[in-house]
Amino acid sequence: MAGSVNVNGDGSRIENLISARKSLKLSLEKSKSLGLALQKSGPRLEEISQRLPSLESAVRPIRADKDALVAVGGHINRAVGPAAAVLKVFDAVHGLEKSLLSEPRNDLPGYLSVLKRLEEALRFLGDNCGLAIQWLEDIVEYLEDNAVADERYLLTLKKSLKNLRELQNDEEKAQLDGGLLEAALNKLENEFRQLLTDNSVPLPMLSSPPLGDQACIAPSPLPVSVIHKLQALLGRLKANDRLEKCISIYVEVRSSNVRASLKALNLDYLEISVAEFNDVQSIEGYIAQWGKHLEFAVKHLFEAEYKLCNDVFEKMGLEVWMGCFSKIAAQAGILAFLQFGKTVTESKKDPIKLLKLLDIFASLNKLRLDFNRLFGGAACVEIQNLTRDLIKSVIDGAAEIFWELLVQVELQRQNPPPLDGSVPKLVSFITDYCNKLLGDDYKPILTQVLIIHRSWKRQSFQERLLVTEVLNIVKAVELNLETWIKAYDDPMLSNFFAMNNHWHLYKHLKGTKLGDLLGDSWLREHEQYKDYYSTIFLRDSWGKLPGHLSREGLILFSGGRATARDLVKKRLKKFNEVFDEMYTKQSGWVMPERDLREKTCQLIVQAVVPVYRSYMQNYGPLVEQDASSTKYAKYTIQKLEEMLLCLYRPKPVRHASLRGRQFSGKFGNGMPDLRRTASAVV
């Protein structure tokens, strides 16, 4: 029994093991199947995981607060409406691009109309872009606060809106039109310049007629149609803060055009400096041109520019167009004209300078009303200051030279008289100079200058002061002559000098303004002095010569022909010696006045030649047959007369160019040189 029980027990365990094995195998197969099933379901789970956020977003409004869901639609509509309008305007701006990148001159009114639409669009964008961004930011904030939108979606929106806000705040980058307006305005500026350039052509200066008769070389006024185009361009450019650039272009083109017109006048002399000339006399020709050129420039060129500035910039206001004109005038050359005048005032003091300063004052005074009208505005302050400085320097300089003339004439008294007995340059210069000062050309100007100068010092001026000063100068010249007459060691030369100068004063002052002031008695006195000194001169010089041809002893001489011949030889020899000595000495003397010279020579001939002719006719045969006859009958009657008629002629003078001549400006006594030739006073 026991054995069978064991067998049964072992069998039971085996069955259990087999059953467990099957169970394990079955479990293993199920696990394997489950693993395969899990492996297949992984991608689907991943797909589901990826779709869950969108599903969550889709169902979030369902989970959101009911009131928030109701209000969100209105918020979105209010934000999207302005944004859509902004986008629509952006599209319109891009639609204008083709028109605005074309050339304005093809259709300027149409171009300006399109540009105006662009400006309006940009103003709309400028006014509404910020508002649209703000509304979009508000709706994003609302969606975020009420959890009715996906966070990642909201994050993307917020980032985009932030970029838009930064662009709007950055003015340099915030070109809502992509730079289209800038390009269009540049084209308008170019068109403005081109219109001016094409219609600003200086006319050539004709060289044949005098400047006063010359037709205006100023550019012809711009056509009305061109002015209207310029005004239209200015309107749009000013609206876009481009007015200053337009003014700069206008000034550049028009001032260049005026300079081109002035170039025909050859104004290089305006650049001359004080160091480049020695005195006013060397540039007095330029000073005469200066007055004519300045008048021409002011009355024609600058007058035309003044009117044109008013026409073109009229709508911009008085300050704008006056400022524009002042820049044109300054750049075109008015400052150079004024500076040249100032340079003349800074030159060395000289009597000729007084006349030139009066010429400058006359030119400026003639243009006074034009200057006040053209350059009287606040914008022309630099021109006004230079003009005032020039006028003050001219008046001060002219008055100073005038009141010093008397002193300078008196200082010349210590100089020696001329060795040739002629008229000193001081005398000839002063007589002509004072006549000029009292003439119709200079007296009114000098009077006005002296009145102004004394008024600055709060002193009154009477016209008699001018006349009295000139008369004092003439009296000083007379005293100089009296001193110089006494300065000669040779009485004959002293009389010759006195005769020369008294006649010069009489001849050159008779019938003149100065002569009328001095009076007929003064003139007759000098004429009588001339006659007096002429008589003494002839008596004490050539009048003594015939006495050497005495007939005494020849008529009653009875000593024979040989003795008579010896006496004639002796007297002819003495005559020849005295004649040669006197002729040699006086051949270096000069009598500049032709009428006085011819009359004096005739008187000498009348005093000498008839006596010589008679003597030679009667006694010449006594010596003519002698072997040494030429020693005694040295001169024929014709030769003697010719020699006497050729006396006292001025020496030929080589006229040097004023530009090349160098004046010392002083004589040996260190005084200013007033003794210039009368011809130098032009």
TrEMBL record:
<protein>
    <recommendedName>
        <fullName>Exocyst subunit Exo70 family protein</fullName>
    </recommendedName>
</protein>
<dbReference type="Pfam" id="PF20669">
    <property type="entry name" value="Exo70_N"/>
</dbReference>
<dbReference type="GO" id="GO:0015031">
    <property type="term" value="P:protein transport"/>
</dbReference>
<dbReference type="GO" id="GO:0000145">
    <property type="term" value="C:exocyst"/>
</dbReference>
<comment type="function">
    <text>Component of the exocyst complex.</text>
</comment>
<keyword id="KW-0813">Transport</keyword>
<comment type="similarity">
    <text>Belongs to the EXO70 family.</text>
</comment>
<dbReference type="InterPro" id="IPR004140">
    <property type="entry name" value="Exo70"/>
</dbReference>
<dbReference type="InterPro" id="IPR016159">
    <property type="entry name" value="Cullin_repeat-like_dom_sf"/>
</dbReference>
<dbReference type="GO" id="GO:0006887">
    <property type="term" value="P:exocytosis"/>
</dbReference>
<keyword id="KW-0268">Exocytosis</keyword>
<dbReference type="GO" id="GO:0005546">
    <property type="term" value="F:phosphatidylinositol-4,5-bisphosphate binding"/>
</dbReference>
<dbReference type="Pfam" id="PF03081">
    <property type="entry name" value="Exo70_C"/>
</dbReference>
<dbReference type="InterPro" id="IPR046364">
    <property type="entry name" value="Exo70_C"/>
</dbReference>
<keyword id="KW-0653">Protein transport</keyword>
<feature type="domain" description="Exocyst complex subunit Exo70 C-terminal">
    <location>
        <begin position="289"/>
        <end position="645"/>
    </location>
</feature>
